[in-house]
Design goal:
The complex is a heterodimer.
Chain A lengths: L1 H12 L2 H23 L12 H7 L4 H9 L3 H12 L2 H6 L2 H5 L5 H35 L4 E2 L11 E2 L1 H18 L1 H13 L3 H19 L21 H4 L5 H26 L6
Antiparallel strand pairs in A: 1-2
Chain B lengths: L3 H6 L9 E11 L5 E11 L3 E5 L6 H8 L7 E6 L2 E2 L10 E4 L11 H10 L10 H8 L14 H13 L5 E5 L7 H16 L3 E6 L2 H7 L2 E6 L2 E7 H6 L2 E7 L2 H10 L3 E7 L2 E6 L4 H10 L4 E6 L2 H10 L6
Classes of the chains: A mainly alpha, B alpha/beta.
């Protein structure tokens, strides 16, 4: 199992596209930092809740600002890309048939491919945060956050550097975990198709559909089970300094989707006729 | 995948009776459609080189894919080395395969592809037969180039190399000389003969009847999913041993030849005569004709297996 994992990691690491995608995850925070530094936003009525304004006062908030932007589109797209590749890439190259004529069970191959897709999604998230943290620190320094000077504000008024870093860690973990339903879906489609782009598009399509439907209040309480419903719940780490109940619900929701999508993918692939 | 050199030592000389592959009543229906493989029963003994012959759509590739655990049979049983075939099961330690066009991870070099393929099994790199593999691939420095730059012939050779990495006891090849030029084809055929001489059992499918005739000890003929004939190549061709002669006096020649024992039939064939033999040798024909004063221009052997093959299928099924 370890050997299989190692060879699959090497396969991803040697792929130029992996570095381009991860590089993009580092580049965007740098661009945002530069833009904010060159053209800082003014304090307005949103004041203490405007992450972009706060970022220019305290570099520790920059990762939160960047995540705000990227977790709604680019990060999802990159995670969907890695997930869609899992099996479909090998099928599209024609290599899947040779991978399977080895004493390595299909289930094990699936497990390893899924692990790598998930790890890459998490890595993308961490790269965003670390880059933003360092860039923010260089541009504006790391300070404790005291929002009492910015009215109006509801929530804990003071967070020390240590507390802020801790909250950032939790928020990062939550966002990375929230990608799970998209990754699991992309993985599932990947076992069913020979087109990695198709699988990635399907996963991204799930995200978009969920996000759009989530905005239609007429749908009512069913929205609570949409995979993206709690995607912004991490804000509470910074505005209120607590892990909100929405965050717990969001985390639990991902578990459900993982079980369903991965289960279907597993069941399907185990008995699939591999013609590619 | 460590069959390695240790395992080879206890295999022993090819002898009677170890059944390497056996299928019984194997069938495959795709969806609600046509039966791609219909009640196939055939087996391959150790040391044999068995050719799977048939027109396009006969079910050869589907059969091989089922045997390799890639496609799930609708009915029937399959065994490799006496064990039931389980997709990606342990028995594949002893099997090397090349299915249709050889394919690899395109952005990695040939060597990297082989190495990662082997290392995923967790066995030490020294257990793999890289000497044979690299020799078979015959790519030289190109082995360090990305596979996406390779021609089809190079990929095919690399695919064969990959199939031989684990020193397989059973080699399953689907159209192994596909995409190769005549020189490369000959090299592959020689390789397969060497591999067979070392005790590896081979099952290959081919369109090229002359190739099967050259390399194989046994042949199984399939048509529309069913097994039409099975036997040694010698047995299959015996019913259609024939020769083509061009002579200066066809009438006299016909007379002489018909009188010979072991000649089944003499018919005019274009500019010459087609002689069907059963026991007589070509040199005997020439000898008899020369003694009778007939001058002989051309003497060639017919494509024996082709005749047998077409005869078995019946002319109307030739596409």
């Amino acid at each position: 199992m370890i050997a299989l994992l190692r060879t699959e990691v090497i396969k991803q690491a040697r792929r130029p596209r992996t570095w381009v995608a991860l590089g993009l995850m580092a580049a965007i925070p740098l661009i945002v930092t530069f833009a904010l530094w060159a053209n800082p936003p003014q304090l307005d009525r949103e004041g203490g809740r405007d992450l972009f304004y706060l970022a220019t006062r305290d570099g520790l908030l920059l990762p939160a600002a960047v995540l705000e932007v990227m977790s709604r589109f680019l990060l999802i797209a990159v995670a969907a890309l890695f997930a869609g590749d899992a099996i479909a890439a090998e099928a599209s190259w024609g290599n899947l048939r040779s991978l399977l004529v080895r004493p390595i069970r299909r289930g094990r191959l699936l497990g390893v491919k899924l692990t790598i897709a998930a790890a890459l999604g998490a890595l993308a998230t961490v790269i965003i945060v670390l880059t933003a943290l360092i860039a923010g620190g260089i541009a504006w320094g790391w300070h404790p956050l005291d929002v009492r000077q910015f009215a109006p504000f509801v929530g804990i008024p003071y967070q020390s550097v240590g507390t802020l870093l801790g909250h950032l860690g939790i928020a990062t973990g939550y966002i990375a975990w929230s990608l799970a339903s998209i990754i699991a879906f992309g993985f599932m489609i990947s076992t069913m198709t020979d087109s990695p782009a198709g699988a990635a598009s399907a996963a991204f399509g799930l995200y978009v559909t969920s996000a759009i439907l989530d905005n239609i209040s007429a749908i009512g309480v069913v929205r609570n089970v949409f995979p993206t419903h709690y995607i912004d719940a991490w804000h509470s780490m910074f505005t209120d300094g607590v892990v909100s109940s929405d965050m717990w619900r969001g985390a639990a929701l991902q578990v459900g989707y993982i079980i369903v999508f991965c289960g279907i993918g597993w069941w399907y692939f185990r008995r699939k006729d591999v013609m590619s | 995948m460590a069959t390695g050199t240790v395992a080879r030592a206890d295999v022993g000389p090819p002898g009677v009776g170890e059944t390497v592959m056996a299928v019984r009543g194997l069938s495959k229906r795709f969806g609600k459609g046509v039966l791609a493989v219909d009640d196939l029963t055939v087996s391959v003994q150790r040391g044999e080189v068995c050719g799977l012959l048939g027109p396009n759509g006969a079910g050869k590739t589907t059969t091989l894919r089922m045997l390799l655990g890639l496609v799930m049979p609708t009915a029937g049983e399959m065994e490799l080395f006496g064990e039931r075939v389980v997709p990606s099961g342990d028995v594949f330690r002893r099997v090397g395969a090349l299915v249709e066009q050889a394919a690899f991870v395109p952005y990695l070099s040939g060597l990297m592809n082989l190495r990662l393929y082997w290392e995923a099994g967790g066995d030490p790199i020294d257990d793999a037969d890289f000497d044979t593999a690299l020799g078979v691939a015959g790519l030289g420095d190109a082995i360090h180039r990305k596979v996406k730059t390779y021609s089809q012939g190079m990929r095919q050779r690399l695919g064969l190399a990959r199939a031989l990495l684990n020193r397989p006891d059973f080699l399953v090849l689907d159209e192994p000389t596909n995409g190769l030029d005549p020189q490369e084809m000959r090299a592959v055929r020689q390789l397969l003969r060497r591999v067979a001489d070392h005790g590896t059992t081979v099952l290959l499918s081919s369109h090229l009847l002359s190739e099967v005739e050259q390399i194989c000890t046994h042949a199984a003929v399939m048509d529309r999913g069913r097994l039409v004939a099975y036997g040694t190549v010698a047995d299959l061709t015996q019913s259609a041993v024939s020769s083509y002669l061009e002579v200066d006096d066809p009438a006299r020649a016909t007379e002489v030849l018909r009188a010979l024992p072991g000649v089944v039939e003499v018919v005019p064939d274009g500019a010459g005569l087609s002689v069907r033999l059963s026991g007589a040798e070509r040199w005997q024909l020439v000898d008899a004709l020369v003694r009778a004063g007939v001058k002989v221009g051309t003497v060639t052997a017919r494509h024996q297996l082709e005749d047998a093959f077409l005869g078995l299928l019946g002319e109307e099924t030739v596409r």
